[in-house]
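Notes from hallway chat w/ T.B., transcribed later so I don't forget. T.B. wanted the structure written out for a chain they're using in a teaching module, and asked if we could keep both sequence and structure tokens in one place. Agreed to drop them here.
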Amino acid sequence: MDRRSFIANLGVTTGGIALACSSLGKRSDVYARTGNLTEYKAFGFGPIAPTASANTGETFLSLPKGFEYNVIGKKDAAMSDGRMTPPLHDGMHTFKVGSELRIVRNHEVYGSRSPRPGAGIGTSNHYDETCGGGTTTLVIDPKTRTVTRDFVSLSGTLINCCGGPTPWGSWVSCEETTLGPTVRTGSKGEKTGGFPKPHGYCFEVPASSNSTVTPVPLKAMGRFTHEAIAVDKKTGIVYLTEDYGSAGFYRFIPKRNKRLAEGGVLQMLAIKDKPQYDTRTGQKPGINFDVSWVTIENPDPAEADVDPNVVHKEGIGKGGARFARLEGCCSCDDGNIYFSSTSGGDNKGGQIWRYQHVKKDEGRLTLMFESPDRELLDMPDNVCMMPKSSLLFMCEDSDYLGEDNSPENFVRILTPDGRIADFARNIVPKLERAEFAGATFSPDGKTLFVNIQQLGATFAVWGDWSRFKA
């Protein structure tokens, strides 16, 4: 991303932020008086309409005129390593490895949430062979936007929801569960857990790997319901989100830069002079908070087997802030971190937050956008920034029913001045409720890759990215 980044356009200076907040405030006032969302909407790339894929002829997406897409990497298709493509595609990222374009892609497979011998998606190097989650790596021809080679790159993990890229060319895949050896019994007598190994960790997968990696749980990065990570390339600090009703925003300070497996310190964000501050409701877009950090003394508690909130409770007990279901997270070259609170806000339609590092143990948190109406934006999940632009792409995981009482899930775009544009809509027959996931641009910015999770398909989307209109 160049210096005309999302935050630069909003304004790093006090005056710039004040101007953006003023604009948001005026729109909020208009909406409160009239219920009209017009002032919140951007033209974007234009109206969207059902579009058939260029390579298969299937119609899965509505897109703006002039945009095309290929369907690639579908579930149950045979891969180059002889394995079948796993289902439930989720978070992913694109990498340039030598002359190759590669995608490392998560699979949020959980099965019955109990052990299934032989479930590992690879042939070897399983972390826990009774679990069917992990990652696959796809080598993409950038000209044809099709897969030339694909294989399992992480096997034997559980509920790999999202994660994030590192500046040194690897993908960190995150488990969204803390199930482990202990058997849990639910309120209706259902049993989960009983796995040979504990889960709830992050795993690093080099994009350059050509086979299944030897999995190493990054235990110092915490055992909780992980969602995504983002790395500040200037400091090497890793920021982490937690997908739970009361969630924390964390940072991991490695002992050695680029050496996550060597350990480090895990901390939770706290609002200065406001211990246990609750950001989930009652917030005004544009509001700023000074931030401090509280240290998690026990990032890998055995009790997480039966209580997924053990790490969270320690942080909250020390004054950490509460968020509503933190999911997507991405970083920019200027070190700013953007993350989504999927069900945050007064109507639970979602919030977009920005964290700005100030100095060693201090930072600033800003609420960049809160959905005023679930028709405009509903439950943003994975997020990414379009290269050399100021546009934040957001994948919806929505349960909202539109005006015609039909399910709606979109890829939406947030502009620097707080307007929303529609880019894509899921129109898969009988799977309209399925979420978008894993939005990521190719390094040259020419192709957007994104998944529809329950369909188990990845899309390569291209068109004239220069014609966006606010």
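Follow-up for T.B.: The first strand starts at residue 48 and ends at 52. Might be a good example for the class.
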